[in-house]
């Protein structure tokens, strides 16, 4: 009798860890073994999480990571590292919901995504490439709305 294959390994390329209970990644790659029942997330956070959960975004993210599987920042440093995040060059939460889908995107590893988020909190929107370009929020309309 045929059986259904069980996916027990993390889906991150090259990872051999077991997947977590509530998604297809291991804990190291963002998996979750617990559900937050406390409702402690703010309304803004729940709304933004909802945008990331939409099918359109999941499809776009998969396409972006398929076309650009390597971290753009690591490539500027001469390293070859798999990208895990699709980053909005201009932080859409600071601009508005319309900037969620109308933006410039880049594939980044966890380390560089965290570094870029730190820069954004200080007013710098960084686009990795050759050369690295730093924008400010007011550049959004000139760059994206063309």
Ends apart, CA distance between termini: 58 Å
DSSP helical segment count: 7
Number of strands: 4
SS-based class: alpha+beta
Taking the sheet with the most strands, its summary is: 2 strands, antiparallel
Low-confidence stretches: none
Average of per-residue pLDDT values: 85
Q: Can you describe this structure?
A:
It contains seven helices and four strands, in the order H-H-H-E-H-H-E-H-E-E-H. The chain has 146 residues and is of the alpha+beta class. The radius of gyration is 17 Å and the shape is globular. The strands form two sheets. A two-stranded antiparallel sheet has the order 1-2. 36% of the residues lie in helices and 10% in strands. The protein has a domain of 77 residues.
Topology:
Elements: H1 43-52, H2 55-67, H3 72-76, E1 85-88, H4 92-95, H5 98-101, E2 105-108, H6 110-120, E3 125-127, E4 133-135, H7 140-144
Antiparallel strand pairs: 1-2, 3-4
Task: Provide a brief overview of the structure.
With 146 residues, the protein is of the alpha+beta class.
Search tags:
7 helices; single chain; 146 residues; two-stranded antiparallel sheet; 4 strands; two-stranded antiparallel ribbon; alpha+beta
